[in-house]
């Protein structure tokens, strides 16, 4: 039996009931694909439902302001995805009359849409015969065919896409693409897959050669950088605080935060008290300073580990441009700050 026949039979028996699989409309398919980059389905699904409720059409998303979009995205991480999503919605709505391109080549021209997402939309919406290659597809094909190509290398995607195209039934590429991704997500999982109940256990080369745990081959990631963030939570006589927007490029661009002092290492109380006095609130006397958390909160990003401490500064008088806490909560924050506000303030 051909690879794709076995795969699709498995898919029809085991596929998950996911909302974006019930349509060929490119708008929700695009939303789901952007959200599920770097995000598990279980985590991404509530965001998808919230987004489609708030912005049921591409016009609704295009007409929203960026802060609305970032607030709804809060917690998904990789916030450049949300900013690109918003800009692309505006392009499609205002320059293309709300109609997405109907082919892979033109979809690739849209901001934030790379080869994988363009292939997914072209395939699932328009049944274009183009393979999708994500981490699941790399894993399934590398194990089934015992391919030792380093998937971290740029050339790997071309090699695996060519193989997937060869295997793909040309009369139903959308179903094949869904099936191979689902098989990688549910059956051919990264660690300790149940190979003995796998439909390919008689034909998988990696299983025959006892190499399942060695594939796919992927070279090591970039070295992780440690950064030390000290957030100053000011509270004045009116119980107001102050927040600021991160306008510099880099992590959390255009999200909000408390005034920040970044240090080279974890600093002691005396050093931080001195720095806070020197750098902030010259117009207001700091009456007391305390640590909300003695141990740093370690927030892990793809290439950075942030060691975060929050400091409460009680100020004399009122802060210029201060806002009350309930108003502050309506702004989009990085999830680590949002969680701190919900738990501590």
TrEMBL record:
EC number: 3.2.2.31
Protein name stated in the entry: Adenine DNA glycosylase
Keywords assigned: 4Fe-4S, DNA damage, DNA repair, Glycosidase, Hydrolase, Iron, Iron-sulfur, Metal-binding
Its job: Adenine glycosylase active on G-A mispairs. MutY also corrects error-prone DNA synthesis past GO lesions which are due to the oxidatively damaged form of guanine: 7,8-dihydro-8-oxoguanine (8-oxo-dGTP).
Domain annotation HhH-GPD: ranges: 35-186
UniProt GO molecular function: 4 iron, 4 sulfur cluster binding; 8-oxo-7,8-dihydroguanine DNA N-glycosylase activity; adenine/guanine mispair binding; metal ion binding; oxidized purine DNA binding; purine-specific mismatch base pair DNA N-glycosylase activity
Organism of derivation: Flavobacterium aquariorum
Pfam short name (any one): NUDIX_4
Domain of life: Bacteria
